[in-house]
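@channel anyone free to eyeball this complex?
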Amino acid sequence: MAFTWQSIYRAGNSLEAHTLKGLLEHAGLRVRLTGENLGSAAGELPADVVEVMLWVPAEETAQAQQLIASYEKGNLQGWRCRGCGELNEGPFDWCWQCGADRPDD
Ligand SMILES: [Zn+2]
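replying in thread with the prediction:
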């Protein structure tokens, strides 16, 4: 029942880590973060320089890497959903409002 966890990404800060965690979890993946708040605990480093590792179960690595790759593409401009007209964030491949797939163009 234990997963083999695979580290797939080193995030530069907690915000990025949580953004990616949300992206992967939205796609149905299980995600763990490690390393968070190490700096704060030490009382020396500001939180924004703490590196956070993302981990996923080994069998979900390929899917997770694909999602992160599309995130890293800098595909950050929003896109307009054809289904409901909602403006969505760039990294998401589906409409958060109605669940329609992102148009290809
Ligand atoms: Zn929509």
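from a first look: Residues 81, 83-84, 86, 95, 97-98, 100 surround zinc ion (CB under 6 Å).
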